[in-house]
Fold each of these.
Amino acid sequence: IGEWTLPGARFPLETARDADVGSNSRLSYQLTINPFFTLALQESADGSQQPQLVLEQALDREKQSSFELMLTALDSGDPVRSGTVQVRVNVTDANDNPPVLSKSVYEARVVENLPAGSLVLQVLATDADVGTNGRVSFSLNNVQGGIRELFTVDSESGEVRTAGSLDFEERSRYVFGLEARDGGGLVSHCKVQVDVIDENDNAPEITILSVSNPVPEDAPVGTVVALLNVNDADSGENGEVSCELSGEAPLSIVATAGGSYKVLVLAKALDREEAAFHELVLRAMDGGDPARTGAMRICVTVLDANDNAPVFSESEYTVRVPEDVPVGSTLITVTANDADEGLNGYVKYS
């Protein structure tokens, strides 16, 4: 009997036979007491009675899938003789139960750059029905934004796996829907939330925003030589960057209030005559484990200032000449040098 059968439905049962005659063969029937079934008797044209099983209450296969009843036939003799037969009622399943998901929201945390095919989580569902009515399949539901390129779900096991590479810097959280459908077409839905955990997969990047080059050698200490932007796409400690300079250039690096901007300033006075060119390396290191670094080579040319006077080769020149030396005669040649360059180092005499 299908569990969808309405109360009041009748089901004929086999009649009994008695080899006696007369009142000894006149039969009546009894059924074991059961709240779901009663016995009705339909009289035939020949006066015999046909036992019928009457459904009194709606059936629910998920609560009780079968019933064991005993039908007894009694004759009218003295003494009364009887015969029994067992009646088994099997309740046929109706697809009256949708799949039930174990959670309404499934959450998972996975690291970025997982290989394709990695397990993220497993969705579980049960269906109280049997057969195809209780067989549940899973699928993505109403997804967009490239979700199908990044995640798949196994239709039978409910395992959600990666289909592409996850990138925390591109997106740190994915929320999408899943559908559980039984063989009869009943559907339940849930949400999946996947949080992507940052890995230290990005090295710090150094960008020069502005630079003053060459730098006058008479520039005061603290003069800004370059404005830099140091950035790491990672988050947390993986994105916290510290900077250092290597080389003997008279420069230092200062972090601005914004955090990511760095300023190169003069740490001491320049002297072009001592060094006309400075080369140094700026290194940025993040706080990941292991740490990743970025580097940039910076070259600074020192522009000459007229900070050096001409210097004679001798502090005093002495020459002895005869008194009759002709006018215009060369008495001596003096030389002076200037450490500056260009016009600043060009010497005239008077």
Amino acid sequence: AGSQLREIFDKINNLLSGKPVLTGGRTVSVTQHPQGLDFVYYKLAEKFVNQGEEEVASHHDAAFPIAVVASGIWEMHPRVGDLFLAHLHKKCPYSVPFYPALKDGTSMEEYQRMLGYQVKDSKVEEQDHFLKRMSGLIRLYAAIIQLRWPYGNKQGAHPHGLNYGWRWLAQMLNMEPLADVTATLLLDFLEVCGNALMKQYQVQFWKMMLLIREDYIPRIEAITSSGQMGSLSRFKQFVEKCLQQKEIPLPKGTLQSSFWRT
């Protein structure tokens, strides 16, 4: 409910503002330790990112309530935003976007970690689990750049707004695609953020969508094996449908104004 989200936001904001906050039956304050605030900034940013790969990966709709709180905290406490991006980029280099290259002297295990895979006891996580986590992180990022905390002062610009989404999309399309990964993440991103980008960039946006259909999808097809066609065909259908209808639907789970009255 909207009221619960406000409570969570106020509690985090109060903690970061140096006010005493009751948690787990005891009162804590960042002023209790000289590095208290730095520590809380770091851990909070890390927790937001963890929610992307855990909550949002399993329930796509969860991106919006988490993102609206993260966006509002970022606006009031910019340091959290810097640390959020640092944690996000480390866990998901595709959010930069960046595809790490294998350098001489880097072990395969280390390289897989650089690509965002979880490696435990020399065992690499399954591809579908990896893609699910990356999807959760990209969906959270795509939600943050278009949402603002509705009770903020609204004077300044969004601390990390849609222009960053436009830049991410343009940079993705300037890179050579990766099988499986590129189609999955472009679909995640456009499902969440496409409607907002369409409204903001209008004609330019539709030029970008045409470029994706005419030029970029064939490039993904060229490197995709028959076993990896699932994500590509879903992406292809999505782009086709949007171009036919000249519309990108609002994302599922988006927070309507009525939500804040709950």
Amino acid sequence: MVLRGYVPTSEETLQTLAALRLQSLNSDFSTHAPFPRLEELFPPHVLHARLPPPPHRAPSKCRGARLRAGLLAGGLWGQALAKQRAERDQRLRGRLREEGASTMAAIVEKWKLLQGMGRPEAMAAYVALVREWPGFGSTLFDVDLQAVRPRLGVVQGQSWQWATLTPLSLQSPVGSGPQHLWLGIGAKAVSLYKPGEPEPLDSFCYGRISSFGASDSSTFRLSVEDRDMLFETSQVDEIAQLLNTYLASASAQRLTRPQEPPTSPPASEPTVVPQGLCPVAGPWRPPVGSSHS
């Protein structure tokens, strides 16, 4: 998850994590130790972000120039453009190699400082660094927030009254308009993150979630109090299954206390999340596939 960029932190910390991984794999620094490839130690997207963006070619306003470009596209002009692109790609590859070498040198210097640290200590230090991110232990899903819509979710007997769905215009903590986000499913809450940002844009305790489910094969609906949030994602089933897992665990803890048996809603109604299911703070184990490192 670190290598895929799902643990937002500084480059300095990412280099320290890479050094700790080398210490765990190879023990103390040695010139004879096998070196993994840089992309197995450090997030590649960080290096690519250092490269200059591709040049933006402004459209020509001269009709004659456009005509000449069209006539020459398959001739000398096209060959010149291809040569320019090849030279630019070669420069970018060279720059990427330089950045990679510089980053690996910084990682090795940090590795040398870890001399004498045993494998268990290196692993513990690695996890301690990753745990500094508040979202540690959550499973992160790439989603596109498509809509935030008002709803009336007050239960009247056994009937649900839904507000009319409106165009995407409702103000919300995460803003309006389609947005690419991380949906973090954790043991205590569901959170929304802007990719790369350590703090969540919004976080919902399970007791605030009214219902959830799939609107279709690529749209996931999450109802929180007076809002419906619609996400486009290719992992609808995975999100629903993980939410069900956490809710079942929270329900089991809740049912250990004496209470009146809940009344099940009709099968035709949306899945309603029982209130008061915020897990009690304490040690927990993240599920397989979560973003612990």
Amino acid sequence: MVHNAAWRRSFLCVLTLYLGFASPPCKARIYTNHWAVRIAGGPGVADRIADKYGYRNMGQIGDLKDHYHFFHSRTIKRSTLSSRGHHSFISMEPKVEWIEQQVVKRRIKRDYKPVPPLSQTSPAHSNVAQNNIFYNDAKWSSMWYIHCNDDVHNCQSDMNIMGAWKRGYTGKDVVVTILDDGIERNHPDLFQNYDPQASYDVNSNDLDPMPRYDATNENKHGTRCAGEVAAAANNSHCIVGIAYNARIGGVRMLDGDVTDMVEAKSLNLNPQHIDIYSASWGPDDDGKTVDGPASLARQAFENGIRM
């Protein structure tokens, strides 16, 4: 009876997927060959334990003390089953306080929604000259969200950006990093403000956040976000950033499996240097998905607040 019941549940799950419906019981967790481990005693102890059980210690997880990124090359890269190999005995080591195999999290980039263009005779456009601010950037006159202020009616944004600029708030001495699919550090609108200390490639584990280019050109979201924040002003290129004097960096972390550890590494990059971490992405924004930071990402937030 038990066997028959289990068979019927499996059959219904397969049938439901075949019909094109994503039933919650059929959504399997995807386990990776990466682990997060908390080990007391320092990097030397972590290296020794990693080597003993066939792992490679990829280093500390951001700024989280005693938390290490372990990688196991002989474990399946993506599996619906958690690992049960010989290396799982690592949890019995006295210095290992906690270990967790990393699971893939679904993350969606947040993009803009097109809005009807403002008329060229609208108050927003005629108000540009009245503000006595003009830049030679090609898209300057089309940046309606900057030209809006309290004197403009029927405006789609009322952030009073020019008012802030006139008071001297242009992002100077502020460091921002964009957690996304990478940024083009050599982009003509970004290279002047680019900050390598606010940049990292978590997906490839190196210092260069340049996007991976392919035929779909999908990895452009981070560069767009960086431009909105800190594109240089008055350089005859493209747009003007909201904080055009800010230092801007990027973390490439969405172009691969996003796990709790990937989010924590990104949120904990060089926290004594970076002022603002911008993340224009998250779980499915479908009105029924509820998800948030897991244990490591929560620790990264707490670490940023306390330290």
